[in-house]
Amino acid sequence: MCIRDRYMGEDIINMFEQFFDEYTKTKAHLERENENTKKNMKNLVEPVTKEMFHNLNDRVLILHNNQIIIERETKELKNECVKFYKEANQWMDLYNQLNEALKEVGDVVNWANVIQEDLKEVVEKMN
């Protein structure tokens, strides 16, 4: 191997070492930039995410409270319907009793009219 080849080999090695050093520095610099970018993105996204979840949680809470109110009012309505049904049945029973009483009064009046007519006939035949 001649001096020139040896000198060229060292130049190539030095050149590769420089490329490698530059590559290492560039890679480290890019990794730092990526980390900084990640941190910045996290800092930018975090408040938005918190606000979104805060709004979502507020809406879920409102829906939950509305569901509780609806369930309570549904239960009250059911109780009122049962109460109304019982009262309607009581009124129907009273109506039926009144109707039967009126029929009986009608029968008594009819009976009294028949007796009155019979008595008139008896009186006429006696005279």
Describe the structure.
The chain is mostly helical and 127 residues long. The chain has one helix spanning 3-126. The termini are far apart. The model has no long low-confidence stretch (mean pLDDT 89).
Main traits of this protein?
127 residues, mainly alpha, rod-shaped
SSE topology sketch:
Elements lengths: L2 H124 L1
Q: Tell me the span between the first and last alpha carbons.
A: 177 Å
SSE pattern, N- to C-terminal: H
Shape: rod-shaped
Structural class: mainly alpha
Strand segment tally: 0
Number of helices: 1
Most strands sheet = none
Unreliably modeled segments: none
Spatial extent as radius of gyration: 53 Å
Name the beta content range.
Answer: under 5%
Mean pLDDT: 89
Helix content: over 70%
Short structural description:
The protein is mainly alpha-helical and 127 residues long.
